[in-house]
Amino acid sequence: METLVLDAAGRAPLEEVERLRARGPVTRVGLPGGVEAWAVTDLALLRPLLVDPRVSKDSHQHWTALVNGEITREWPLFTWVTSKSMFNSYGAEHRRLRKVAARAFTARRTRAMQPKIEAATAGALDRLAAAGAHGAVVDLREEFAYPIPIEVICDLLGVPDAQRTDMRRYADVLMDTSATAEDALATQLALRTLIIQLVEAKREEPGEDLTSVLAAELPVTEAAGTAQLGLIAGHETTVNLLASAVRLLLTHPDVLAAARAGEVTWEAVVDETLRVAPPVVYIPLRFAVEDLELGGVPIAQGDPIIAVFGAPGRDPGLHERPAVFDPARADRTHIAFGAGAHHCPGEPLARLEAEIALPALFERFPGLRLADPDADLGEVPGFVANGPARLPALLGD
Length: 397
Known about the structure:
Blueprint: E1 4-5, H1 13-22, E2 26-30, E3 36-40, H2 43-49, E4 55-56, H3 59-62, H4 64-67, H5 78-82, H6 91-101, H7 107-112, H8 114-131, E5 138-139, H9 140-145, H10 147-157, H11 161-175, H12 181-204, H13 210-217, H14 220-251, H15 253-260, H16 266-276, E6 282-288, E7 292-294, E8 297-299, E9 304-308, H17 347-364, E10 369-370, E11 392-394
Parallel strand pairs: 1-2, 3-9
Antiparallel strand pairs: 2-3, 4-6, 5-11, 6-9, 7-8, 10-11
Helix pairs in contact: 8-10, 8-17, 10-14, 11-12, 12-13, 12-14, 13-14, 14-16, 14-17, 16-17
């Protein structure tokens, strides 16, 4: 079967996932720069894959093409798969790094973040009211979905106010898999410089934040890598979750009315959004530590593998009417936050942010509506993330 080349710009990611599914549970795909990988879409294969010790995320140890020098810094996704952090580690190294990072995402710490989330939400809604006064059109992605997660994650990391704008801009570029290798490398260097400065500052004057914990227990480079991972993963996914939820609610007024009336919970709204509009579609890359078989397909040692996180939520074998947004449905199975050793430790925080911010938005602006319900809202750039690129809206009376 001919290799399906993934759209690096991510212009229609969920439609692309359906094409992958039609090709079988494991299929060959092309990545930017001519690299090929195996894409896995079937939940019955993904769940064991994500806990299989024969599958690694450490490219330096287990990607044959990188070890042999075939993959160079000019490859567009080089920074994605070679950066040193918990995200790209394996085995004992991953467990060591995750043990430290996980201390920031305990149930107690997550609950303790609630006042900060509420304050960030209130501030965003005040700014939104000012921007949308007198019938002005506002972009809900920019004015609502973005500021809340970036403020929360920067508070958690202890990022000074003066650095937050730059960190957000750098994180956006690194999430865009259609960016050039030159831009990605320059951005990676600039962001890493800022993060290292932050780590060193926290070593000198520690606080109660995550970066202080990392700085105290890890070498500078490992602390910086873990803090950078927290910054990118901790805000980008939540931005897309909020933006997608708002779009779905504004285009499904019956669901919005049910949520506001308490007929369905906001928790269910968030979970259904994660299923039908996952904030992450693909996670590059994993690597076969040894020869193995997935769904009857032989995978050679050193071959790259992509876990298609966006596939199970819309699998017609798992869900009736999989593309329909229905928080009242019984089965909302998905793996939007991954599974296994690399399961996102920030999932409870992301859910809490959405469960606080969404009802507050519609309580404050009950007449909120899209400026043009039929407009093409675009998609965020890159094939990793998924969400509307913009949400022009009117606040109403």
